[in-house]
Give the backbone structure.
Amino acid sequence: MKREWRVIAILFFLVSALGLGNLVQGAEVKPIELKIMHFAAPNHVVHKDVFIPWCKMLEERTGGRVKGTIYPGELLGKVKDTYDLIVAGTADIGWAYGVATPGRFPLSSVFELPLLFPNSKVGSRVVWEMFEKEPSLKAEYREVKVLWLHTVTPMQLHTIKKPIRSLEDLKGMKIRSVGGVAPSVLKALGAVPVVMPTPDVYVALERGTVDGTIGAWEQLGPFKFYEVTKYHTVANLWVGQFYVVMNSKRWESFPPDIQKVVDGISGTWGADLAGMAWDKEDLRGIEMVKGLKDHEVISLAPDEFAKWRKAIRPIWDEWVEEKEAKGLPGRKILDELIRLIEKHTK
């Protein structure tokens, strides 16, 4: 009888151990859930062509151990608060643009200077390479883990009645503008900037309140600007610089193998993912316009583009002087930026 009870006890122990093992195993395979916040709509390129594929790849490469849930449209907070919300841990990962918080990233604002970048892929490669090399740029993001930086595609000129082929053509024209560096650029080029939010632009163009607008190619379709403009001048006026950052404590809580996976789909890889997604979206906009009757796409001649750069050069110089006066390496940063752009556009 004692032997039978001993056998039963052993069997009970084994069953219990197996059950406990399953519980432990279940705890191990429970995925790490990441909250990802951004301010764009679910049909925007950053949502559908950047973060959705990024989350899918993250899940695949971690064997399902990490999953990302995306919260678009400022569901977790305003764009201007994104950086602080990530620092606080309201979300784990956030995407926003530097000028949403003026003055917070003083040296990174070099990426917003006009007439520098030809497209988003080059811009994204350059800003990430600059970030990796320059301690002064890294210091601006010291409270977070930076996954990658990138730019969007350059702003172009879209006008209603008058084609813009030269600075003389642009002189005195009322051009819808955004904030930031935009008004200064348009003034330097001889235009009259009229600042207004994007939702108001269509009616302003339709009524002739403005003579044209600035905007990336990818904006023409969603906002229907192609219906109220006719001429499109490729000027590559400026780009917006964006960041993808992660809460530092969340990052530090990851085991080394998970950190390795995240790093593998961030950095240059992430910058390329974003850059190519924006360029692809821009290409759709260009092709759409080229297929429209009575629309004209105008490319500035090289000697004319040199005139435009000469006209805006004081904006570069003012930026350098302002940063140097604050003890920041403005000249070094701008010179290195120009060198890297030339390197990546050859």
In short: Residues 2-29 form the longest helix (28 residues). Confidence is low (pLDDT under 50) at residues 7-27. Residues 146 and 335 are 24 Å apart (CA to CA). The first strand starts at residue 32 and ends at 37.
